[in-house]
Amino acid sequence: MNFREGKLAYHWPGGAWWWNSGLVVDEDEWSYVAMVVNPSGVTLYVNGIGATHSFSAQMVDFGTMKLGSYKGWSGRNFYGEMDEVCIYNRALSQAEIRELMHLTKVPAADLSLIHYYQFNRASGIVTDRSGILHATLASGAVRTISTAPVGGGTSHRMTVNTGGPKDFTGTDVTLEFPVFGTYPNGELVVSRLNVNPDHPVGPQPTPQQRYWIVNNYGSNANFSELESIRFDNLFGITTTNGGSEYKLHKRASTAHGNTWSGELDFADQATSTSLTFGDGNSITSFSQFDINRGSPILPVELTDFQVKKTTNKTALITWSTAAEINASHFEVHRSKDGTSFEAFALVEAKGNEHQGAAYQLEDKKPFQGTTYYKLKMVDMDGTFAWSPVRSIMIHGLPSNVIVYPNPLGKSRLLHVQSIFSEDLKMELFDASGKFVGSREIPAGNGQVDCTNLAQGVYFYRVTGETFMKNGHFVIN
Known about the structure:
It is a single chain. By secondary structure, the chain is mostly beta strands. It is built from one helix and 33 strands. A six-stranded antiparallel sheet has the order 8-11-12-18-14-15. The protein has a five-stranded antiparallel sheet with strand order 9-10-13-17-16, with no helix packed on it. The protein is flat.
């Protein structure tokens, strides 16, 4: 391979060193490059993106080999850093190239890897970990500490062009995409690395020696915000605050160094072995991910949190604490759907360190139907924790819109009932996301005849002037 003005090219008998691959190796950035030769030509890759030059490629018997130099000529050298070099006696597929991008190799697991150089020895020869063709440093080459986003681990590849949860087997990552929206529309490769990144994400990375990288090869680099991202098979996770002390950070998929973002989101759900980052995670493109545990658990012991309906059809919110050490205030958040919350009241903490305190607040205008509440308990230094969610229903349906029965039986008559008096529109889609029809729902209540639909799973979208609801139903 060679580089001409940052563009990746190649040398091979019968080929064309001047061929323009269109692949660029960016200066001062880590890149993963590969060259695959088979009888029909040469394919070059940069970070898993390939370009092929077709010609009749003949077999070549290499006598000697120089890494970083063309025939030892003084003006034809590579000025940069190499993390490792792999040589195979077979042509790797595009899938293999992508899956191996961030993984160090295990020679015993692939006997076609005939030469493998990692430059990890402190001094002396450059060891060939797969063969016996050891190398020596020459022409001023020196060893340095690698900062590459690579390590031992595992990867999984999947095409994503629909919504729903996507479990990337073996990586302990599940990505959930919205039912409707923009998707990557192509291959994703998730890699779990069983090492620490070159630069720590924070003072308390959780867990130690593990982080994740997602490479997006789809046609859409940006997509609709994830419903959630879940990390499983973790250890040492505390669940006292529902996971709110665990913060998610990201950086570009090929980044290294001190380039981690600030806190992207905090975990909404936690078990002893998993963390889920859901509402408001802001993930609309892919990257490297790591988790840092924030400040110690908030020193507020919540002993009770209740929401009750008053005779005036308002919501009475009460809570009490056993102790409040350095507590600042409580924010009361509410939601129509139990997912998207917003703050609507702030109550200063009484700060009783030994006996705790009792609080109450009246929501005079709860939402029609079900209103969900939770407390954000904030410390003097800005750390916080969340209470469990409580809900109350005041004159209304258990949801703004309900669609029933589900599953749909022989009658094939789907009922739509809402708290709204406006005209609604219901759009129907089959399991593949194909639009199959729409119906008008006058005054927010009505029936939809589904006799023309075959058995199976269908998704629906009900929209009005000020809201939208998605869901699915089954026709037996």
